[in-house]
Amino acid sequence: MKKHLYRSMIELTNGKASSALLKRFARSSVSRHFVTNYAKTYQIELQDIVKPLESYPSLHDFFTRKLAQQARPIADAEIVSPVDGRIEIAGSIGKDSRFIVKGISYSLAELLGSEPSAASYSGGQYAILYLSPADYHRIHSPADGKVLRQYMLGDKSYPVNKLGLTYGKSPISGNRRLITELETAAGRVVVVKVGAMYVNSIELTELGTDWEKGAEVGYFSFGSTVALFFERGNVEFASEIADGSRIKVGEPLAYMV
């Protein structure tokens, strides 16, 4: 019962009114009384966090908690995990592949917002990482790279940080998602950060165009998934990568071919 309540609160719902209500409660001072119980219910590793439980002013502040710097060492791999989470699925991108992200089925073009964007990654590799309410929700760069473009999709489409693409007047359906395309030593990589449907639940903390592997670049305020897409023939997944396995920030995800 408790887990169901907390999951609903953090992942929100598909209703605008209920999502707004849950969001307001999670950010309220009243919710601070739930922090200790939340940590206990999800058996969160408290030794990694930088502040004592009682110092968080709301459940939302605990959900977006930072970790001690040494808690997530960065591996010597070209591509590392950008988040703590479960690998839902990883594999090759086929011509007709569809991707289930937070219960919604997308083609790659739908997920990225245009056919030309998707064409660059046809035949490449992908990995989808799900973050549960128990997970650390800060996002880190998967590689050293330069931001080529960055844009938000969801109820409305608009560029972020004066970068991005134009999609016309038609709204793009689905969950809010912030898409970042990086130029890396392992070729181009797309990092799709998927948040809630009716609220902007993705916050950027890195506003520059140079990303450093393992450095924090943003965080999720509410329910979240990260999908990564790689160009054809550029990378192969680490031997530990398997559907359903757990991974943490900085652990090896893929190596350059």
UniProtKB/TrEMBL annotation:
Keywords: Decarboxylase, Lipid biosynthesis, Lipid metabolism, Lyase, Phospholipid biosynthesis, Phospholipid metabolism, Pyruvate, Zymogen
Uppermost EC category: lyase
The protein's required cofactors: pyruvate
Alphabetical list of Pfam families matching this protein: PS_Dcarbxylase (PF02666)
Superkingdom in the source lineage: Bacteria
PANTHER family xrefs: PHOSPHATIDYLSERINE DECARBOXYLASE (PTHR10067), PHOSPHATIDYLSERINE DECARBOXYLASE PROENZYME, MITOCHONDRIAL (PTHR10067:SF6)
Protein name: phosphatidylserine decarboxylase
Species of origin: Planococcus dechangensis
